[in-house]
Amino acid sequence: CSSSSTALLPASAIRLDRENISSVGRLRRLAEIHSLYLQQNQIEKIQNLDSFPNLRFLCLAGNRIQRVENLQALPHLSALDLSHNQIRVLDAEELPRSLQILDLTGNGCTRQEGYRDLVVAALPRLLQLDSQPIHGNAAEEEQAGGGSSSSEEEDEDEEELLPELRIPFTVDRDFFADLHRELAGRARRRRRKALEEHRERLEELRERRALLLGP
């Protein structure tokens, strides 16, 4: 990649897209790296990623990967893009339970019977699968319970999840556009719910005041 594009990324990110990489070798431990871009290479196997124990975002789109494996060493991984690989059968148990965003579009495994239900059951924190929001799982219920969250808290949540969303790079932009819309929609729904609850409390207080004061 060019030095100018690399300069746009934070120090916590490594960008190695379109470098004709065929495999990920053993590296020294790089605990400070949170994001790794390896899209559009020739990688056939997911391996040696335990060198990045604090990885939150991993893009392996457009490679030659046939199996989901060796990801359990990434306990903080929030977003995983494996779109347009050669994964025919998915072992959902190989996916880190920390995942909130997963993209497997363009793989044969998405046509497995019960594919979506299988993935959702295996990933309790999942918010989005293949650019489609997940409804009714533990993560969404937990978010719904936080109706009083402020907009600042929403922004912090988004920044923590994918800190590079504001930076130009070559991952499929539709994936991130959909993600932005989904996160923005969730924030609006929470704020609307909080406002409704506030109005209900005000109305309840008015009714009590009227009863106390009398006609």
Keywords:
215 residues, 33% helix, 9% strand, elongated, Cilia_flagella_integrity, LRR_dom_sf, cilium, LRC46 protein, leucine-rich repeat
| Count of distinct strands | 7
CATH names the topology as Leucine-rich repeat, LRR (right-handed beta-alpha superhelix)
Q: From the alpha-carbon coordinates, what is the Rg to the nearest angstrom? A: 21 Å
- For the record, the count of structural domains works out to 1
Mean pLDDT: 78
- Helix/strand-derived class? alpha/beta
Q: What is the rounded distance between the termini?
A: 76 Å
Poorly predicted runs: 1-7, 147-161, 163-173
The level 1 CATH classification is Alpha Beta
Work out the helix count.
5
Main β-sheet description: 7 strands, mixed
Strand order of the largest sheet: 1-2-3-4-5-6-7
Strand content: 5-15%
Notes on the structure:
Keywords: Cell projection, Cilium, Leucine-rich repeat, Repeat. It is found in: Cell projection, Cilium. It comes from Struthidea cinerea. Residues 138-163 are annotated as: Disordered. It contains 5 helices and 7 strands; from the N terminus they run H-E-E-E-E-E-H-E-E-H-H-H. Residues 1-7, 147-161 and 163-173 have low confidence and may be disordered. It is 33% helix and 9% strand. Strand 6 (128-129) and strand 7 (132-133) form a beta hairpin. It has one domain (12-135, 179-213): Ribonuclease Inhibitor (Leucine-rich repeat, LRR (right-handed beta-alpha superhelix)), CATH 3.80.10. Strands 1-2-3-4-5-6-7 form a 7-stranded mixed sheet, sandwiched between helices. The protein has helices at 3-7, 115-122, 138-144, 151-161, 173-213, and strands at residues 13-15, 35-37, 57-59, 79-81, 101-103, 128-129, 132-133. It is elongated and about 80 Å long. The protein is of the alpha/beta class and 215 residues long.
